[in-house]
Design the sequence.
């Protein structure tokens, strides 16, 4: 079986390799992007709740757990990727600190009752209406007061937000635009 891997870059599980089967729809977050993101969040993650929406390999949520997040909810619609997330969570011993769901992100948002301090959004580039996605997140009230939404897009994506959201960070790293919204 052809496999690839990415690593957790910090925290108690630093250097742990997340092994996955590559597909054309999967574009894992690079170490360089994760280094930037988690340096921005390094003093804020401890004991916080996170949502890894469009989880893919689960690397953003696993990185957050490794760095002290209290709880992460993973939402991934591809069954094989969902099962791989469960396998990595089990290997790392995070069973009590997580919830994983195999579901479409938009459907999950509509039925979810929890709120989160950090929401990681890394959907397949050019297949998502980001404005609608962010609108649904705020309409369904799943962000805690003071919570942040982290968005990873193509550097070519023009992101239009409502006047209610403030862009706190915005950086292009290679082919990726990384944005933090509050």
Sequence:
């Amino acid at each position: 079986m052809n496999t690839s891997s990415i690593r957790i870059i910090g925290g108690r599980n630093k250097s742990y390799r997340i092994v996955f089967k590559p597909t054309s729809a999967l574009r894992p977050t690079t170490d360089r992007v994760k280094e930037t993101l988690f340096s921005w969040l390094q003093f804020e993650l401890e004991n916080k709740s996170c949502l890894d929406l469009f989880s893919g390999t689960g690397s953003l949520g696993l990185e957050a757990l490794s760095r002290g997040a209290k709880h992460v909810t993973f939402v991934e619609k591809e069954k094989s990727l969902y099962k791989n997330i469960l396998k990595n969570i089990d290997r790392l011993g995070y069973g009590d600190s997580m919830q994983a769901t195999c579901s479409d992100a938009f459907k999950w948002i509509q039925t979810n009752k929890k709120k989160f301090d950090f929401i990681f959004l890394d959907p397949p580039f050019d297949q998502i209406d980001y404005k609608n996605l962010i609108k649904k997140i705020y309409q369904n009230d799943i962000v805690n007061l003071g919570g942040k939404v982290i968005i990873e897009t193509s550097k070519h994506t023009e992101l239009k937000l409502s006047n209610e959201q403030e862009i706190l960070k915005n950086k292009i790293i290679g082919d990726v635009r990384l944005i933090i919204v509050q």
Remarks:
- The two ends are 42 Å apart (CA to CA).
- Strands lie at 4-7, 17-20, 49-53, 71-75, 98-101, 116-121, 143-154, 167-173, 176-181.
- The longest helix spans residues 79-92.
- The mean pLDDT is 93.
